[in-house]
Write a structure and sequence with these properties.
alpha/beta, nine-stranded mixed sheet, 15 strands, two-stranded antiparallel ribbon, 8 helices, 24% helix
């Protein structure tokens, strides 16, 4: 196992489905259970051993940078990169190339809330595995990524917002990944998807189909994609 100490967190988007809640904040800075989503993610990864962070900012970047600073009060080191154009998750990964160097790294979307015990499993990368895609069950795969695996839980395909009548998988992309630097070869060759974005999932599919081993890791406990005010209200009510 390789223990991962670097993480990239995507916090550049506004989150238009949050309506007025993101007028002055990027979605990852919305409070859930008393603190910003981004803080839940950072603290969960830190407690699992991650010490170096790159936070990708864009919309209202100052809200993120003023809150977290250089990371010293959280006992981590934080750098920032700016996504100037919102053209998809595939292009965002390229911003992490210098930060990652020759090291594997965790990549997390900034609007995912999960049982923090999962991070301890995420940061352990088997030596023969090139990437990890976290998955969960019980979600509508037409609203996100449908993940197709074999009997060894190795990824054979991943599709974004797949039509439900063409999907025979229960695995939903949970939005947290582990990558070796080889992912940059595949993000560099991305072409726009039908919706005009550079999709990270297209790069992951190409990585798996090139013969590299991509493993799916099932998360345990509570998981939520905090995508709209209704989900946010449910999470805060549970508190």
């Amino acid at each position: 196992m390789a223990k991962i100490v670097k993480a990239v967190v995507l916090a550049a988007g506004r989150g238009t489905r949050m309506r007025e809640l993101t007028t002055d904040l990027p979605k990852p800075m919305i409070e859930v259970r008393g603190k910003p989503l981004l803080q839940h993610i950072l603290e969960g990864l830190r407690d699992a051993g991650v010490r170096d962070f790159l936070i990708v900012v864009g919309y209202h970047a100052d809200a993120v940078q003023n809150f977290f600073g250089d990371g010293s009060r959280y006992n981590v080191a934080i750098q920032y990169a700016t996504q100037a154009v919102q053209d998809g998750t595939g292009r965002v990964v390229d911003l992490a190339r210098d930060f990652a160097g020759d090291s594997p790294f965790v990549l997390s979307y900034g609007d995912i809330l999960l049982d923090p015990t999962n991070y301890k499993h995420v940061v352990d990368l088997p030596h023969n595995v090139e990437a990890i895609v976290t998955v969960t069950r019980g979600e509508d795969v037409s609203k996100g990524g449908a993940v197709f695996v074999d009997e060894k839980m190795e990824l054979v395909d991943i599709r974004e917002k797949a039509q439900t009548d063409k999907v025979n998988t229960r695995w939903y992309n949970a939005g947290i990944y582990v990558f070796c630097p080889s992912i940059f070869e595949f993000t560099a060759n991305l072409q726009p998807s039908p919706r005009g974005e550079y999709e990270l999932t297209d790069a992951i599919r190409a990585l798996a189909q090139s013969g590299k081993k991509v493993r799916a890791l099932e998360l345990t406990g509570k998981w939520a994609d905090v995508r709209d005010p209704e989900i946010l209200a449910e999470l805060n009510q549970e508190l």
